[in-house]
Amino acid sequence: MIIDTPGLEEHLEIAGLSIRALETSSSVLYILQDDSKIIFCNEAWDRFALQNQGGHLVRQSVLGTSVLDVTPGILRPFYADLFSRARISGQILEHDVELSSPEMFRLYHMRVLPIGGPYLCIENTRYIERPQENIHSWKPGTISQYKDETGYITICCHCRRTQRMRGSVEQHWDFVPEFLIVPPASLRNNLCPKCWREHYPANGM
Q1: Cα Dmax for the chain
Q2: pTM
Q3: In the chain, is it the N or the C terminus that has fewer CB atoms within a 10 Å radius of its CB?
């Protein structure tokens, strides 16, 4: 699905791409214009959204909106800088993104491809998929160990692990699938130290 944008198909053709090829790709693909608004998403975008409790993010809902508006706030500076550097340099930039479900660990390789003019094509290709490991199932009476002093539960927006606030001397982050299936009412997104260090060091700590 695409927003009618003058000149886009010509830029795609010069880059050796086509809307038809993008639409049928198994990779999750979308195109941004210079204000980071989404002007195209392919069918794989919808499949991924619907398979991961993201029915509110299907392409009919996000076309014409900024991709940064559907990005956790703590990650917006990173992605705004990534997209800006790709446009300025004209080079393909890459980044690994974890897009796991409650049942499956999934790692995707993101490529940011400048395709001429104000446009970027973002390609996310899955290269690791396996069952989740070290799962901590939530049990009645144990939710309090994940709440901070204000009652909020903090989940890492990269690996989707939950910070354990009590019963631990060191900082621990557990994978709690129940919190992904039905997100807590008082939820805060952050990055765990491991993801800060390994995936977003430019964001600082």
Answers
A1: 59
A2: 0.86
A3: C
